[in-house]
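Run folding on both entries below.
>entry_1
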Amino acid sequence: MKKILNRLKVGLGNKWWLFNYKLRELKLQAQFYWLLYRGSQPLDVNQKSMIVFSPHQDDETFGCGGVIALKRERGIQVKVVFVTDGGGSHHGHPRITRSEIVEIRRQEALSSLKNLGVEPQDIHFLDKRDGALHRMTEAEKQQTIEEMAELLSNFQPQEVYVTHKQDRSKDHEISYELVNAAIAKSGLTVDLWQYAIWLLWDCLLFSNLKFEDLAGAYRVSIHKVQSKKKQSIETYRSQYLPIDAQTSALLPHGFLWRFFLPYEVFFNPEYLSKEEGRGKKEAVQSNVDSNSTAIFDN
């Protein structure tokens, strides 16, 4: 009788866990759809050159693959910089070495980006140790900032994309800090766009997510290149499929669905005020030009 009661208790516990897991998935989906259709503003893809800083090999395609593809189809310059080597994804695997994982992920990145229209000469690997950005010494941080600043100065992009400053991953959040410092060091004036990978998976509003974390949200329609982005995501087989028969997939169940949608969401709380400032400046210049013309005409 005691064994039966224990089995019943375990069975009910498993069902309760599954119920809570499914409920959390539904809440996350509802939250994302709210962000898409109520919590964000529409944004058109522009003609500005862009550089994407990706902490790992796959973040760039998950977060920005649609915008990358759309810009490349228009002939707009796009560069992608991978901050870490990606070697920590299968840490402790008994048969696959770290160096093998690094090479697998590098090749996946090249294939994924080629599908999106980015050529190898526009892809850069900084090869910082995956999972260890928060343990870099001050000298290592400064070296990384200088490397990023040099890439920015050489390319002179108009837009910079990097993972969200609250993305619930140390490598992602440190990447944001490093890129911010590199922009300041380069002296460039750019539009800085953040893309979320883990923030909208790990967090729920009114629990561990604040409205200010979602401030300045904009959605970009990627309907035209949706299938191309899907193909590029599926290039990262080492991440969303088991790498061998003895292991399971790295990415959690239900993680990828929002990256297959025909929209991408970016965050830039300062964008609207910048655009208003530009509009006012253009209006003032237009008035000056009109007045000058009127003076000379008289």
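>entry_2
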Amino acid sequence: MTRRQPLLYFEVHGEPGPYLLLVHGFLSSRAHWILNLEALSANFCPVVIELLGHARSPAPDDTSAYSPDSYVAEFEVIRHFLGIDRWFVCGQSLGAALTLRYSLEHPESVIAQVFTNSNSALAGGDWAKRVMPIMEAQAQQLERDGRAALDKHPFAPTRSRRLPRAAKEALIADYALHNPIGIARTAVHTIPYSSVRDLIAARRYRLSWWQAIERKASANKDGSRSAPSPASRLLTSTRVTPSTSKTRRASTLR
């Protein structure tokens, strides 16, 4: 890959060491991780990004930039830009869906995947159909009313009653930087297409092939075997059948 300047805003924290990509959710920002950075930096080198239209990241006019596949490509751009071989990835909510897609598409670049609090990540095949009318309505309001629509949004951090003071203040400050048009484009062009459920189901059909290759490649002279790859661990720990069925177990890398 040709090294280029990443499109997404990102920050690198801590000392050089195992890198950890942190991706926040819809209408959040780098401030999502503010209470975790000190502890994480003791063992990792956190790379904190901001989604398009959110806080310090741009809001491109090209709507294709907001697609989940474009985010996968951008994560790889950041990895190459920083000269990282493999890294840990962690996503929350929409960020969980995007990082899971990245792990599935680039297992060779991922040491382990962690995700939390995501409706969209493993939503059924009708997710786009169900959520699109809601997202389109929000987008129209954002395009019409701008910041006023953002201030009235249920996710506005000013509405929170449980956040620690430091986190709330940081989130409010970053919320003021959000671009209403960029948020509207995220609502329509990212969220409805974010589920990886069917992608995981499709990849599971290839699992026996992955395992056969790994058994052959990882067998040592003494007959022992090395640990399975991230791709295999992600697929074997996830029982996802096509979108008409239910998820039996949450997918994680262990």
